[in-house]
Design brief:
The structure holds two protein chains of two kinds. Chain A is of the alpha+beta class. In chain A, the strands form two sheets. Chain A has a four-stranded antiparallel β-sheet, with no helix packed on it. Chain A is rod-shaped, with a radius of gyration of 44 Å. In chain B, strands 3-2-1-9-10 form a five-stranded mixed β-sheet, with helices on both faces. A five-stranded mixed β-sheet of chain B has the order 13-12-11-17-18, with helices on both faces. Chain B has a three-stranded antiparallel β-sheet with strand order 5-4-6. In chain B, helix 3 packs across helix 4. In chain B, helix 11 links the parallel strand 17 and strand 18. By secondary structure, chain B is α+β, with helices and mostly antiparallel strands. Helix content of chain B is 39%, strand content 27%. The chains are: A alpha+beta, B alpha+beta.
Chain lengths: 315, 348
């Protein structure tokens, strides 16, 4: 191995095909092509083709790489470097090496994709719960609407509307106020079914139509709503609870003031007056008869799995 | 989208079910598993008690020769074919499951398994059923030398002869291929295991010392050589001295190992010679022109190509990454099968 040929080979090795290096090293070692051909059991032409980088004249790349390694071993050169040089020269990548002896592709909870998926699931769940709760709340209000006097509606619908707005998705927050306004005239003028549809569509993240609807609705609400509110402001609603068996009673009026909070005995008659709608919690709902302003109210749809019922009346 | 979804649930696998190592190639991912074909079985509550798998693969190999009474380590394949059907099935199941770890559903991939060309119908059927029992949807078989040649990148589809020598753990296969078919093939039951045994026997004979399989393998990897070279390597090993009955340390050099390996090596050389004798002259000329390609773990034995070059007078070339040639070739064969529609390489 010559000392003078070494440095310039090192600098140009990356782009140079290996032929020249082989030839130079062979000549410095004083070997002829025939010697090498005999040692490698290859033909004279093959050796010439290797040294002159004529790879078209040689067989498939696997053989060329093998010849280069063997030739390098004879000349005490690093075979892998020559093979790399050959690969770069002809643009043939060596076959993929072993990826890993034990590549476990276990996806843990810390994986980014897993985190996104979990977050997406949680968001969807929260959204569903919010929609369900909003609808539930709305139906709770409207359930009492037909029984209540129409004159109560503006008062009833306006105050409880803000809580759902607060829980609605952030996107719906701006039109939320408009939604609340649109509920009022709708409840006053149309059937409860239609009312239920209008806010439902508003909730399902379509702020545009909701906002558009609210523009016209709000206009009517301001005129008609104000007049009725003024008319009914003075009168109080009366809620009567008649107990056939003992039951827990809890009543709050529209302002949130607690009117009744006690265990009622069988035969008791509890009468409260205040601002509708009343929020009522009954511990033993089947045993209680509810009247609002003298009209009977059927609370059985609100009976949950047990006897307990939680509902709004007079809204 | 649908294609991606389908690809998520069905991954084509190519399995090199070898005596020493099992490799799994997953289409589009490369080699994802390379573990020893060893299973450790635990049997609690005495003989006749319930058996359970204690470990598989690398972990089980570490236990080899170091187990207490209730654990036995088994190498379920011998000489390239299944020796213990149930354990092989369990092992395959474990490996396939490991490769499919992220899947929610039970994996049922298409599987291509490489079989030694000398294996009998019964042995092939055993391998096929073992893979099917491990959850494979379809099982294809391919002969090992064909897979090795494809994996090494040899031009097997050309009308010219290519000779490949695949030295595995249990068997060595030599074959001449042309036009996607096998012209001549032979299998000898000599492989890495026989090298280990030869080293164990040599050490016992000459040093009166008993060493284990793992130690013998380590010796082979570190100083094993097939041809006398310029440098002599040494290794310090420990074994049980037969006369004294206590562990003793001693050193071995590469020339001694060369001597120890003479017998199995001559068996392989003999097989190659026979193959060359049996090859039709036109193909033989092609082989002489281009050379023999070495694949399999045995090709990593130092200077084995030199030995074969001297003995046959032909050029000999070691494939890139010879250990994984068969598995890679199997994967490539699966792709080719999809492209050409037919089961061009498979054997029944």
């Amino acid at each position: 191995m010559s000392s003078d040929s070494e440095p310039d080979i090192d600098t140009e090795r990356a782009i140079d095909p290996p032929g020249q290096r082989l030839r130079q090293t062979r000549e410095t070692l004083g070997l002829s092509r025939k010697d090498v051909a005999n040692q490698l059991r290859l033909s004279h032409e093959t050796i010439s083709a290797l040294e002159e980088d004529r790879y078209d004249a040689l067989p498939a790349p696997i053989f060329v790489r093998g010849y280069l390694r063997n030739y390098a071993a004879v000349l005490n050169l690093p075979g892998d470097e020559l093979v790399d040089g050959y690969g770069k020269y002809v643009g043939v990548e060596p076959p993929q090496r072993l990826v890993s002896t034990d590549r476990r592709r276990q996806v843990g909870s810390g994986d980014r994709r897993m985190r996104y998926a979990t977050a997406a699931i949680v968001l969807v769940l929260v959204g569903l719960v919010a929609i369900w709760w909003y609808n539930n709340e709305l139906f709770g209000q409207l359930g009492g609407a037909p029984a209540a006097a129409p004159s109560h509606t503006p008062v009833a619908a306006l105050p409880p509307a803000p809580p759902p707005v607060a829980d609605a998705p952030p996107a719906a927050q701006a039109p939320g106020a408009a939604v609340a306004a649109s509920v009022a005239p709708a409840a006053a003028t149309t059937s409860p079914d239609q009312v239920a549809k209008a806010p439902a569509s508003a909730v399902s993240e379509t702020p545009r139509p909701a906002a558009a609807a609210s523009v016209t609705a709000a206009a009517t609400a301001t005129t008609a709503g104000r007049a009725r509110a003024a008319k009914t402001a003075g009168s109080a609603d009366v809620l009567t609870l008649r107990l056939n068996a003992s039951s827990w009673l809890e009543v709050r009026d529209a302002t949130g003031k607690r009117l009744v909070y006690k265990l009622g005995r069988s035969g008791d008659v509890e009468q409260v007056s205040g601002k509708a709608p009343f929020q009522v919690v009954l511990g033993n709902s089947p045993a209680v008869e509810v009247q609002i302003n003298g009209e009977p109210f059927d609370q059985s749809p609100y009976n949950g799995n047990g006897r307990k019922a939680r509902f709004k009346v007079g809204g | 989208m649908l294609k991606r979804l389908r690809g998520l649930f069905s991954n084509d696998l190519s399995i090199d079910l070898g005596t020493a190592n099992t490799l799994i190639y997953v289409r589009g991912q490369g080699i994802v598993l390379n573990e020893p074909s060893v299973v450790a079985i635990r049997q609690d509550r005495g003989p006749g008690g319930p058996k359970s798998i204690a470990a598989v693969g690398t972990e089980a190999k570490r236990m080899l020769g170091r187990t207490p009474g209730n654990i036995t380590t088994i190498r379920p394949l011998k000489d390239g074919v299944i020796a213990d059907f149930t354990v092989t099935e369990k092992m395959l199941q474990h490996f396939i499951h490991k490769v499919h770890e992220t899947r929610f559903f039970k994996p049922s991939p298409r599987v291509l398994v490489c079989v030694p060309c000398g294996s009998t119908q019964v042995e092939r059927r055993a391998i096929k059923e073992s893979a099917a029992g491990a959850g494979a949807r379809d099982v294809f078989l391919i002969e090992e030398p064909m897979a090795a040649a494809i994996g090494a990148g040899m031009p097997v589809d050309e009308a010219s002869g290519s000779m490949v020598l695949d030295i595995g753990g249990g068997t060595s296969e030599v074959a001449v291929l042309s036009l996607n078919g096998i012209v001549y093939s032979a299998s000898v039951r000599i492989g890495g295991d026989r090298f280990d045994d030869a080293i164990i026997n040599y050490v016992r004979r000459n040093y009166g010392t008993l060493i284990g399989e793992s130690t013998a393998e380590k010796i082979k990897h570190e100083i094993g050589t097939a041809f006398p070279g310029n440098e002599v390597r040494e290794i310090e090993v420990k074994g049980r001295n037969l006369a004294e009955g206590v562990p003793r340390s001693f050193s071995l050099n590469s020339n001694e190992i060369l001597e120890a390996l003479q017998e199995p090596l001559s068996g392989i050389v003999g097989a190659v010679r026979t193959a060359l004798e049996q090859t039709p002259p036109e193909l033989g000329a092609d082989v002489a022109e281009r050379g023999i390609v070495l694949t399999g773990g045995g090709a990593l034995l130092r200077d084995l190509d030199r030995l074969l070059m001297e003995e046959t007078g032909l050029p000999v070339v070691v494939a890139d990454d010879p250990m994984t040639c068969v598995a890679r070739g199997g994967g490539r064969a699966l792709e080719l099968m999809d492209q050409h529609g037919g089961e061009i390489f498979t054997v029944e």
